[in-house]
Amino acid sequence: MKIKNIIKYxxxxxxxxxxxxxxxxYFVSPKSDYSAQEKRKLSDFPEFTLEKLADGTFQSGxxxxxxxxxxxxxxxxxxxxxxxxxxxxxxxxxxxLGSDSYLFPKPTKDSEILSQNAEYINEYAExxxxxxxxxxxxxxxxxxxxxxxxxxxEYKDNELISSFKNxxxxxIKFIDVTEAFKEKAKSxxxxxxxxxxxxxxxxxxxxxxxxxxxxxxPVDESEFSVETIDGFYGTSYSKSALWTLPPDKIELWxxxxxxEDSVSVEISDGGExxxxxxxxxxxxxxxxxxxxxxxxxxxxxxxxKNSNAKGGRLIVVKDSxxxxxIPFLSQNYSEIIMVDLRYYKKDVSALVEDEKADAILLLYxxxxxxxxxxxxxxx
Length: 379
Fold this sequence. Notes:
Layout: H1 2-28, E1 34-35, E2 40-41, H2 50-55, H3 57-68, H4 73-86, E3 95-97, E4 103-105, H5 112-126, E5 132-137, H6 140-143, H7 157-167, E6 172-174, H8 178-184, H9 200-214, E7 224-232, H10 235-240, E8 248-255, E9 263-268, E10 274-276, E11 301-306, E12 313-318, H11 322-329, E13 335-339, H12 348-355, E14 359-365, H13 366-369
Parallel strand pairs: 5-6, 5-14, 12-13, 12-14
Antiparallel strand pairs: 1-2, 3-4, 7-8, 9-10, 9-11, 11-13
Helix pairs in contact: 9-11
């Protein structure tokens, strides 16, 4: 009889023991403040005040803290992502898993911001004394549509970019790379599989297309040596939590036989300037996010000089896609001033006048252009 009772309650005993052991391990195990796979800071234990208790923010903070610091968190987050995938909820985290291990952020929607940005650019170009060039980079989901999963939202990049282009005045020389990219992607990898950015090959293809409109002769691909770095996981990977996918490779393209002292990079963020003699900040390759190897990532203003280049001074107003393109553009411009309006809050028209620039290029991805409210600082 006693044995039967023991067997009867054994599952409950085991379950309670598991819960107790799991809770004990949770409290005694060390807590990390950063998730390398998700590339984000984990929640801190919330500060307790009567006000926060009354409005519910303390309880919400406790939930976030417990969720972020649960034992074996990476396993459970990854398991959840895989479960959603096999149960037909591909894209539930805002990222689709396609064929050949491609990850695709969900498509950009048309927005009032897109139209407003066209107005800001038109206003700037109306009074610009130098040529204004612009290109908009389509998303990996549109360019690599043949690798999308069966069930996905429609990517309308061609319509969005075409509509945006039609809103621009004749004062702006727009370079549409969409169809050229679509064709080139049939034989080349123009975007990373685990990240939304383009590869160095994609940036090079854009550099060639820009040359036709901007009046420079692109350097031939054979003039570059390529260094390959393994182990790159991008932001799409971090958001998807599909931890079993293989990493990407980053390629660093360097001009052959270029004098060692010909290139200088100076980063200005309002404080002490950072200087380098290379486009590539290799110390970033030690970090979880390796994309900032290109020009050290996002900064308000970066000045790139190449004494070996024959061209004049170019101002590039951009998002992070430009970082991989600048090493190519720098082969044709002796000085490039790269401006990120998310951080640079001064008048760009005044900068153009002070620097006596020869041309300005606006280079944005369609995803950022449809959400960025900072182009008001152009003029």
